[in-house]
Amino acid sequence: MSDPLRTAVIGVGHMGRHHARLYHDLPEAELVAVVDTDRQRAADIAKQYAAKPLTDMSDLLELRLDAVTIAVPTVAHEALAAPLIEAGVALLIEKPLAPDSASARRLLDLAQAHDCVIQVGHSERFNPVVRAMDRMGVKPKFIETHRISPFTFRSADIGVVFDMMIHDIDIVLHLVACRDYEVRACGVSILSKHEDIANARVEFADGCVANLTASRLALKTERKIRVFCPDAYLSMDYQKKTGIAIKKDANLDLLKLAGEKDLTDLAQVAGLDFGSMVKVEPLQVDDVEPLKAEIQSFLASVRDRTTPAVSAEDGFAAVHLAERIVRTVQQHDWDVSA
Hints:
The chain is of the alpha/beta class. The chain is built from eleven helices and 14 strands. Strands 8-9-10-7-11-12-13-14 form an eight-stranded mixed sheet. It has a six-stranded parallel sheet with strand order 3-2-1-4-5-6, sandwiched between helices.
């Protein structure tokens, strides 16, 4: 086995501390340092995982690092990432890649110029239900997503699109290969200066339609996706890590029954329990911590010099669509006269 990759984490708050934990625990990595502007927090996390505490990122460049996680507010991503990219250090940048598509584009171009590995922290891509969908090779025609939760008082500096919907935007773009689309969207601001509730309808040039809803003002937490394909219907719950599939080829008898009967005949069987007639398959979902799978995938890309599972190109595409949605939300007129 090769030597562990020397790693560090910039920003050990809500998400960064979990990256530090996993870099410490995984045999393929060595946590060398943690960086945080809060000196006490940096010291506490560093002591817990036997790393060096730092408050200035510039000190990292002297530590001969192989890979670094950036888990700070999105507005600081570009400034912190640029010198590390130029130094050839691979980066795992928490989602979203940047606060706007111009900044995301600059990071992407810089990474390509220096042949630097960048993975974007869309950890939902590593959720077992998404991995189950990937194994099925779905080709969606309609996608519906719901991501709602109570207000956490975090990320109030951005709207719900970049805060929460960005997860589903990345998944939709992962499932739909097309990048030519039209956007319709609306949203409202209640507790913050930005949209707290938003709905977007994305119509792709290949015919697929995605309807995305996000709210951070709900009284419950729900994270679901439904995918309609020519040969199957999938319903997945990110939170519970469960899902079902209704496949066309498994329900040919029911389709034949409906196809061979006219309206009069169908009326005579109206009393039958449709739900019991449909063959539903539970999806085979593995029990893997998404963040652990994400970091292991990142480390493998760094070690093998392969394209990351969620590349900088993917991160840029998600930011670009999110930006389009926010712009459309802002342009929506709620008071159009008759």
